[in-house]
Amino acid sequence: MVIYQNISLKPYNTFGIDVNAAQFVRVNTIEEVQVLCTTFNLAERKKLIFGGGSNLLLTQDFDGMAIKIELNGINKIKEDDNFVWIKAMSGEVWHHLVMYAVDNNYYGLENLSLIPGCVGAAPMQNIGAYGVEIKDTFEELTAVEIETGKLVTFKNEECKFGYRESIFKNEAKDKYIIVSVTFKLSKKGNLNTQYGAISDTLKQKGIAEPSIRDVSDAVIAIRSSKLPDPKVLGNSGSFFKNPEIHANQYDALKLKYPTIPGYPLNTDLVKVPAGWLIEQCGFKGKRIGNTGAHKDQALVLVNYGEATGNEIFALAKQIQATVFETFGIKITPEVNII
Ligand code: EPU
């Protein structure tokens, strides 16, 4: 394990922001993670733990230790007639895990195809897309407790999953390094094609009885058509969460803005697409300096090349303020701003 000094983090964050980390280290094994925690007394240090760097906005040089998780491996650890338990190490690329599941006809992850990032980051914010979240197939995870270097297990309920939320963004923040995640996938066909864009894509292709691969391919086609590839245009996927507002507020807005989309969560709350709100405020496709909201999906902020983290952060604040002035709705970032 080598600790490098003053390393640019540009290659390690999908926004492509060029800031330096005072120290930079890659970890490849659980033992290395444990050594870092104990011998290097990680609990007392300023640290940035990341995998794919796909949910990060770096606004300044990082005067602590940046730790890149590179633990690899995907293994079947158990199966019965109906289910299979797959354990993936936290540094595995998320999409590789999904492709492994699709190749083997294990159901449950196909709607999450092509989400950028690594396996270890997935439970942090309960990644989700097209009607599925990882909490639906998540069995447990193993993490190293930073304070002690000991391995601990978190079962599904212990992770306190919510919409883009988990215990690891709240009370357990900065206390653990996730090293592996186990998923319980189904061997029997159980596809979720309810989400409009998926059923439309399958219909267009004339597929009435989709296979797991058909659904994965449909998701890949939808994502590729409106989400920019970070290798081409720096971004971190959805920048904001979709806000949940009171049904009364939604009804009042609906009178003023009849086309406002809304998905009732229960009798009291309605989820409103932040992309729609941002588009209505005129930001979609608008370029401001080196940054802007993407032309095909306003919820995605992009780096046109040389943007600084602060430029993107300033745009995010401007968007938040305008959405609030216009609709009285607070939108909050999904991305981790450092
Ligand atoms: N919309 C607009 N204009 C836009 C974008 C969206 O009007 O520029 C409206 C449309 O009404 C559209 C609706 O928003 O029907 C929903 O859009 P979309 O299906 O693209 O989904 P989203 O709510 O914007 C969420 C996730 C995505 C995930 C998609 C698909 C969040 C914050 N984002 O986006 O996740 O891929 O649903 O399920 O919940 C991510 O988290 O990085 C991410 C990409």
Please describe what this structure looks like.
- This protein has helices at 30-38, 94-103, 196-204, 212-226, 247-256, 274-280, 309-327, and strands spanning 3-8, 20-27, 47-50, 56-57, 62-69, 74-79, 83-89, 128-129, 132-133, 138-145, 151-155, 176-186, 234-238, 244-246, 263-264, 269-271, 287-288, 291-293, 300-303, 336-337.
- It is of the alpha+beta class and 338 residues long.
- The protein has three domains: 3-69, Uridine Diphospho-n-acetylenolpyruvylglucosamine Reductase, domain 2 (2-Layer Sandwich), CATH 3.30.43; 74-186, Uridine Diphospho-n-acetylenolpyruvylglucosamine Reductase, domain 3, CATH 3.30.465.10; 234-337, Alpha-Beta Complex (Uridine Diphospho-n-acetylenolpyruvylglucosamine Reductase, domain 1).
- A hairpin with a 4-residue loop joins β15 (263-264) and β16 (269-271).
- α3 (196-204) crosses α4.
- The chain is globular.
- The model has no long low-confidence stretch (mean pLDDT 96).
- The structure holds uridine-diphosphate-2(N-acetylglucosaminyl) butyric acid (EPU).
